[in-house]
Amino acid sequence: MKKAEIGEIIAGLGGIGNIKEAEGCVTRIRARVADPGLVSATALKKAGAFGVVQAGNSVQVVVGGTAETLAEDIQDLLPE
């Protein structure tokens, strides 16, 4: 997955305002979202995710070895 798709990942997670936290875990971006109904697994897969696991407000986006970098980039964009 390329950094160019970070905007698509953010959109798939419901937008920057919906993301409360993002962290990388080997091959996954683990995100906590405010409204899980805004998350689109279809959009995340279109952005290049290999899979999406969602349980309540927790979302894991399987992206491969770039997960740490992508999660840091998302975290950097979140409001303080």
Please give a structural write-up.
The chain has 80 residues and is of the alpha+beta class. It has a single domain (3-77), classed as Glucose permease domain IIB (Gyrase A, domain 2). It is built from three helices and four strands. It has helices spanning 6-12, 41-46, 67-77, and strands spanning 19-25, 28-33, 51-55, 58-62. A four-stranded antiparallel sheet has the order 1-2-4-3. A hairpin with a 2-residue loop joins strand 1 (19-25) and strand 2 (28-33). It is globular, with a radius of gyration of 11 Å. It starts with 5 loop residues before the first helix and ends with a helix. The mean pLDDT is 93.
Q: Per the principal axes of the C-alpha atoms, what is the gross shape?
A: globular
Tell me the radius of gyration.
11 Å
- Give the strand line-up of the largest sheet: 1-2-4-3
CATH architecture: 2-Layer Sandwich
Secondary-structure content class: alpha+beta
Biggest pleated-sheet summary = 4 strands, antiparallel
Domains, number = 1
Total strands: the figure is 4
SSE arrangement:
Blueprint: H1 6-12, E1 19-25, E2 28-33, H2 41-46, E3 51-55, E4 58-62, H3 67-77
Antiparallel strand pairs: 1-2, 2-4, 3-4
Give me a quick take on this structure:
With 80 residues, this protein is an alpha+beta fold. It has 3 helices and 4 strands, in the order H-E-E-H-E-E-H. It has a single domain, classed as Glucose permease domain IIB (Gyrase A, domain 2), CATH 3.30.1360.60.
